[in-house]
Design a protein that fits this description.
It comes from Streptomyces kronopolitis. Keywords: Kinase, Serine/threonine-protein kinase, Transferase. Pfam families: HATPase_c_2 (PF13581). This protein is an alpha+beta fold. It has a domain of about 60 residues. It has two helices and seven strands. A hairpin with a 2-residue loop joins strand 2 and strand 3. Helix 1 runs antiparallel to helix 2. The relative contact order is 0.22. The N terminus is likely disordered.
């Protein structure tokens, strides 16, 4: 199974559940063939690690037996949450929705500006096209 990633940036209200583990919200409601998980994060680098842990746990529960795809999703989440913290300067929300066709990943932040493509900066270590 190859997960699909719908990477969107949109404003929407999200309610997190009580924590099952320190810093990780409880799984959200299961609706039909989908299950979702929300996590609010602050402008703290340690919240990136929490987002990765939440994504791993969520995918172990919803898509077990696919470690390569799980790690790809964890990498995507790590990059998106890092970029939101680094460039939007504020809190945000990570939403994961697992469904039969794959995984939707949404990261929201408080910025009114939409992201834009930039020329890669390979000399200063800031990476690719993000």
């Amino acid at each position: 199974m190859t997960p699909t990633f719908a990477l969107t940036r949109r404003a929407r209200a999200v309610n997190g559940g009580p924590a099952q583990e320190p810093g990780l919200p409880a799984p959200s409601a299961v609706r039909g063939n989908s299950c979702s998980q929300d996590m609010r994060f602050a402008e703290r680098p340690e919240d990136v690690a929490l987002a990765r842990a939440l994504t791993r746990r969520f995918l172990e529960q919803t898509h077990p037996g696919h470690p390569d795809e799980q790690e790809a999703a964890v990498l995507v989440v790590s990059e998106l949450v890092t970029n939101a913290i680094r460039h939007a300067h504020g809190s945000g929300t990570l939403t994961l929705v697992a469904h039969t066709g794959g995984l939707d990943v949404t990261v929201t932040d408080p910025s009114a500006q939409l992201p834009h493509a930039r020329t890669p900066d390979t000399e200063n270590g800031t990476g690719g096209w993000g």
